[in-house]
Amino acid sequence: MATIAPRKTPAATRSDETLRRQGFCVLQDVVPGSRIEDISRSLHPRFAATPFCQGGFYGPRTKRFGGLLKRAPAVESLVRNPAVMRLVRAFLEPWCETVQLNLTQALELHPGAPAQFPHRDQDMWRGPTGELEYLVNVMWPITPFRAENGATLIWPGSHNGGQGDGGQEPVAIEADPGSAIIFLGSILHGAGPNHTDAVRRGIIVSYCLGWLKPYENQWLTYPSDVASAFDPELAALVGYQQHRPNLGNYDGQCPSILLGGEPPDHLAAIDALRPDQEGALSEFLRQQTEQLPPVGGIAEIERGRNKREVKSNG
Ligand SMILES: O=C(O)CCC(=O)C(=O)O
Quick one: how far is CA 295 from the chain centroid? Predict the structure, then answer.
């Protein structure tokens, strides 16, 4: 198995190109290592109290939990990292109007954990493959990721409809805390085996097309009383925004109405349409208006007809 060791990825445009070509890239030192240490410290008690996962996919030598924005508020700086968000938007927004958070998850791979089942994250949605990306994943190492301790394995060339699982060797993506391993939802990957006697810890933040059902139910994880304390951009990412046309509305309005306290009991439903739909609708309405009777309506027409009838009778 090959290893991709930490190396500088200089320009932002370069990471776009790398991500498109090989399905993954590593952004080096995007946040200070001290921030990752702080986040790790605040997650420590929850890791200690969380039981091991059940089932062969999550893995019985693995611990995981979600809802990180309420469990370690500094995770917001990972979720909204500008370099990451730029890449996410570049890859997903050709297919949707707005992206949304798919999940945040903290993950510990304990000594002796075997390699995880290789998978493509976007297989959870059964749409066409090879044409569009449904998801972009970001793995933030909390401890250094090395081939020996289970660094994420990726099958190069397996993204965007590529096969890559026909006996091809995966690469172990080695990276340090503060760096972000970014990979597309269509790429084959999985956690590597942890052959060391130390825990490998990381945070996964993933984003998906705004019209999909997210993996982690964001509205239940961050109900409006929690999300009302969020920055509006973060609240939008966890679902307090409509995806035109009208998807995710609350009583016909943008669900962000819930962030300002209890909304009125009776709300007018307000169209939130895409520009193409707005165009088609206004053309339809225009044609209808042309066919309408003149102002004054039917009564006016009736009066006109009565007048004509009186004249012709007299
Ligand atoms: O832990 C890793 O390196 C990858 C985890 C993963 O792909 C998953 O849990 O779906």
Answer: 50
Segment 142-160, tens digit of pLDDT: 999 999 999 999 998 899 8
CA of 218 to the centre of ligand 1 (A): 20
Structure tokens at 225: 């009383």
**CA separation for the pair 310, 314 (Å, rounded):** 6
Give the pLDDT confidence score for residue 314 in this predicted structure. 47
Dihedral sign of CA atoms 44, 48, 50, 55 in order:
positive
What pTM was estimated for this model as a whole? 0.89
- Domain span(s) for CATH 2.60.120.620 in the chain: 2-210
Q: What is the mean pLDDT of residues 272-280?
A: 96
> pLDDT per residue over 122-141, tens digit each?
999 999 888 899 999 999 99
210 pLDDT band, cuts 50/70/90, is very high
Between the CA of 202 and the centroid of ligand 1 the distance, in Å, is 9
Q: Who lines ligand 1 at CB under 6 A?
A: 107, 116, 139, 152, 189-191, 202
Nearest CA-CA partner of 162 in 138, 133, 195: 133
B/e letters for 276-289, b = 16+ CB within 10 Å, e = fewer, are eeeeeeeeeeeeee
Q: Domain 2-210 carries which CATH code?
A: 2.60.120.620
Short-list 300, 24, 314, 9, CA closest to 185? 24
